[in-house]
Write a structure and sequence with these properties.
Blueprint: E1 2-9, E2 13-19, H1 20-23, H2 27-36, H3 38-47, H4 59-71, E3 77-84, H5 92-100, E4 107-110, H6 117-122, E5 125-130, H7 133-141, E6 145-149, E7 162-166, H8 176-184, H9 186-195, H10 207-217, E8 227-233, H11 240-250, E9 256-259, H12 266-272, E10 276-279, H13 282-288, E11 294-296
Parallel strand pairs: 2-3, 3-4, 5-6, 7-8, 7-10, 8-9, 10-11
Antiparallel strand pairs: 1-2, 1-3, 1-5, 6-11
Length: 306
């Protein structure tokens, strides 16, 4: 019943629209909504509107995003917007909690059960995070980067930096190489990547968001940037070279690149200290969410996991 998005608006601001269920722990009230319906949910929220909500999975991410505005006032601004299928009346508890925690969130869209997806485009979003897979599917179909935010474990390693990690194929890049692997096996995949090493990979659903982060990073000295990114991919040599050349061709910055050759990603993401990680593979997100906040990026015509 909630939705989140991270967006750039006009190229000058990074606009983050985030769901109430991603920002705060609304598990109990959401279960009530699913079990007893909207009226019971409304009564529950209104009766408890002065009770503070506990931080949710994306709360640390939002804190770090908003902190960027204080780190460099001249840099492109980061704005956080709330999108929720609560009504404005039942959403008062959410705004009371926002005020208590000192979060600079002033804009919101409350739809009282209606889809929030149309407002993602209206806010100029280039990334949607949602607990609702249907919202994610709608955003992807509209050409907007989207991921389903999953119940996850907070990383044990904490950093003052905003740290965001991405899978490669079908996330930052298109899925054409991944399809070669699915259809022809790993040998065909490596042969394809070697033969086409000088041909840049196509952009995937998260290329625009990576561009936006790069634009924001450029406002800070590289040796003291409050933002750090990582590519965490199952690729290994010789398939690494095409990835490196593609990023160089795009002119974007990735601070760390981990070529794991099929190793489980979770421990490496914990070592990196990711505030959030995006991947298309159900196997990889299951490993990742045991260690860090994780968003699943479903492929439109996904094939079964091998």
């Amino acid at each position: 019943m909630t939705t989140a998005a991270i967006a750039t608006q006009g190229g000058d601001a990074l606009v983050v629209a985030i769901s109430s269920r991603a920002l705060f722990d609304l598990g109990e009230s959401h279960d009530l909504f699913e079990r007893d319906g909207v009226d019971a949910f409304a009564q529950h929220q209104i009766a408890r509107e002065d009770e503070l909500l506990a931080p949710g999975i994306a709360f640390p991410l939002v804190q770090k995003l908003l902190k960027l505005n204080r780190a460099a006032p001249a840099a492109p601004r980061v704005e956080v917007i709330l999108l929720s299928r609560n009504s404005a009346d039942t959403g008062l508890r959410i705004f009371n909690s926002i005020e208590h925690y000192g979060l600079d969130i002033t804009r919101a869209a409350f739809t009282r059960g209606a889809p929030t997806a149309p407002y993602v485009h209206a806010f100029g979003a280039d990334l949607l995070l949602s607990a609702n897979p249907d919202s994610v599917a709608q955003a992807l179909a509209a050409g907007i980067a989207a991921a389903t935010i999953l119940p996850s474990k907070a990383p044990q390693r904490q950093s003052d930096q905003l740290r965001i990690a991405f899978d490669g194929d079908a996330v930052l890049f298109g899925d054409e190489s991944e399809r070669v692997s699915e259809e022809g096996g790993i040998d065909a995949f490596h042969r394809n990547e070697t033969e086409r090493v000088l041909e840049p990979l196509s952009g995937g659903p998260f290329r625009g968001f990576l561009d936006a982060l790069h634009h924001l990073q450029a406002a800070f000295p590289s040796e003291a940037s409050p933002i750090r990114t990582a590519l965490v991919t199952a690729r290994s040599a010789p398939a690494h070279k095409r990835v490196i050349l593609t990023l160089r061709h795009w002119g974007v910055r990735i601070d760390e690149a981990l070529f794991l050759g099929g190793r489980p990603k979770g421990p490496f993401l914990e070592a990196f200290g990711a505030d959030i990680f995006f991947d298309d593979s159900a196997v990889n997100v299951e490993s990742a969410r045991q260690h860090v906040a994780t968003g699943h990026v479903p492929r439109r015509t996904a094939k079964p996991e091998r």
